[in-house]
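Page 42, continued from yesterday. The earlier attempt failed because a stray header line got pasted into the input along with the sequence. Redoing it now with the clean sequence only.
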Amino acid sequence: MRVVVQRVSSAEVLVAGDVVGSIAAGLLLLVGIAESDTAADLDAIATKIAGLRIFSDEEGKMNHSLADVGGQILAVSQFTLLADIRKGRRPSFTSAARPESALSSFDAFCDLLTVEGFEVETGRFGANMEVRLVNDGPVTIVVETADGRVI
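This time it went through. Structure tokens are written below.
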């Protein structure tokens, strides 16, 4: 599993010109789910993201978590994060989960974040989406799991 975590001042997802998800300050999560991902991977990455201290404290140091600042989450499924570009010029997506299992895993991941106490907005799975964001910092971190552990 691979998630690109972006600290944002605001973010929204549009489908066919209509806003389907939006947040104020918080985290935009671009979520790539692999065919090999397990429930342990989902849990490990959700726990790691929930506890990341990437928000500034009073001294400007990254000491606060999303919960500390009362932030929100906008999660967007993005299978292209699993692109394999080692051969040729066209990316291969064979390691990405099939749509049915990816949707189930994506929903389970969002549920885990909700259980952690966060308000979670989402894009629309499988749709052509336009993502708009105001990157705060900018702060962008890639979090990956394998075999139920953050790597």
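Notes: The mean pLDDT is 96.
Reminder to self: strip header lines before submitting.
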